[in-house]
Amino acid sequence: MLSDARSSPMRILLIGNPTSRRASAFVAAAGQRGIRIDVVSYPQLLGHRLNDFADENTLVRIESPGECAETTRLILRAGTAPMESRGRIPIGGGELAALNGQRGEILHPLQWYLGFREVLNRLERAWSGRGVRWMSTPRAVAMTFDKLACVEAWEAAGLPIPHRFPPFATYSELRRNVPQRHARVFLKLRYGYSAMGAVALEWRASSVRAITTVDVVWSRGRPRLFVTKRPRVLHREFEIAWLIDTLAMEEVLAEAWLPKARWRGRSFDLRIVTIGQRVQHTVGRSSDSPFTNLNLDARRIPRTDIVPHLGAAWAEVESSTARAARLIPDAATLGIDVLVRPCRRKFVLLEANAFGDYLPGLLHNGLTTYEAQLRSLHMTDRKSA
User: Fold this and answer.
1) Axis-axis angle for helices 303-310, 313-326 (nearest 10)
2) Separation in Å, CA 151 to CA 145, 186, 337, 341
3) What is the pLDDT of residues 289-299, one digit of tens each?
4) Which of 193, 221, 256 is the last residue of a domain?
5) 328: CATH
6) Which pTM was predicted?
7) I need a surface site. Which of 113, 157, 186, 280 has the fewest CB within 10 A?
8) Is there a single domain that holds both residue 240 and residue 274?
9) What residues are paired with 232 via a beta bridge?
10) Structural domain tally of the chain?
11) What pLDDT digit, counting tens, does each position of 35-51 carry?
């Protein structure tokens, strides 16, 4: 049973940046229930014997490794050998030691993913045989960071997803893969997150346009890529080609760029939080651009407006989202993004996010996302006691 003022000594170990907004919010929510939370950073954890941190009385919450330059370097270093095994040249040595990325900088997404997956694998190997419990298992977290793995699982189960174009390595290859004179293609990093490396691309005959969340800053003769809250519009094909060639080196998914339903003149989609594979918190995200991520300052639409706006279609959205959550094994909590078509009767599932529950102030049945997760854990423990 969970450790609180009235129960046995089960403790929650949160792995993440202790000073991050996410960790602070979760610790505060647990404190209101009298639950003990121990927070350990990724560098602290991996710099010691893993078995010193967890045993059969530990419930582990894996939190986002963001907002910490030391953690980023550690993860990239862990990705060195996996990159080499793929025949790729990783960054390392002095370049890695000197790395001190600024907020929003896109830093080697493929190597970062391979390194984070290796870190998660170490945790699973060390702790799964010791009776340690997980809120979301390392395997589930790793799967959500692979956008292709998620949509392939959903597609195999017959759930609606956007049409996907063949993989490509260059802009020229993408154009050959999509030979139509008029096409709309949405590109996103296979291992990205928070709208990192997103490009909405359209061409009509010889006219080409791209809208992107990527800003390029040249420093010491080298380009540095950043996520920008103000999407850029590109019209020069050589500039578009350079950007897509650069992103494609990190592996990119190409999907149909679908129009979205509108709310008060702005396009919108949904972020739906599942807890215990049940739909709970829901928020609409509206924007004037193709990118509706809340970290890009999209506006929230409350659930009380969204559900009647979708009418009879809401029941199917809810059911399909719950099915999608069940297809990601052992993920206690997910943020699943759903695109609603303009007719408001059809929709597609876009992606899943292991750390998609940071939605300050969003309530469902009077609880925040973190309070709802802690309540779910407590109820589960009561049933199993």
Assistant:
1) 110
2) 11, 15, 12, 18
3) 999 999 999 99
4) 256
5) 3.30.470.20
6) 0.94
7) 157
8) no
9) 212
10) 3
11) 989 999 999 999 988 98
